[in-house]
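Listing S7. Sequence submitted for prediction.
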Amino acid sequence: MTQLGYSVAAAELRLRLARRNDRREVFVAECNDVAGWAAVSIDETFVEGFGAQLEGLVVDQSCRSRGIGKLLLEAAESWARERGCREMRVLSNVLRERAHPFYHRNGYETIKAQYNLRKEL
């Protein structure tokens, strides 16, 4: 995760994994070590209705362009489909220029650009 600018301690990740329920899953790809992961969740939002969202997909820099991301994405999609989801939603930072063509090659279409705002509570 640090390769993408997210600093999360291992202890915090363990807690997050322990709190996940049957509406959330994490898939891990290994190649001698962790090569990548994809996290997906199912929710029913007021606006978009029932569906899945890819919370994140990361492939280690040394393992990219080997099909690992595609396999992780397919695993997440399959898991969501088995739970009755008809769509997968993905939010991708505009700075992730390699990610956008990856998603387009895998059947995703850009539907809008928006700001992602946050306020600490």
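Caption to Listing S7: primary sequence and predicted structure tokens for the chain studied. The chain has a mean pLDDT of 90. The radius of gyration is 15 Å.
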